[in-house]
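Entry:
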Amino acid sequence: MPKLTVENMGDFEVPAGTRLVNALTDIVKIDQFHACGGHARCTTCRVQFEHGEPIKITEAEKNIMKDRGLATQPGMRLSCQILCDHDMTIRVISRWKGTGAKDAGGRPADVIEPPPVWLEKTAGS
């Protein structure tokens, strides 16, 4: 099982293939914000990778990160578009508490949505 290390929270074993957003809410038990329900539309599920950033990115994640001006921030990724398939260390930067939203967002499906078109991650994407 991949190990997910979350800054100030600890280390967690995560079943391979789990969406990172769901690992954060279901296993780590934090209030990870995901206003759009994990569809790569809002960027509220952002995390910052310290180690183990995936080398692939979905086309949906790449496009929204570019549109929102977030693509150039090192290690910044959308937890709804990442599968836990290797060890990774992250810092959670987008939590629901204090946002004023009625809830953290609908529970994301167990599979990445929209259906992923995988691209190689390059600088600035």
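Helices lie at 20-27, 59-67.
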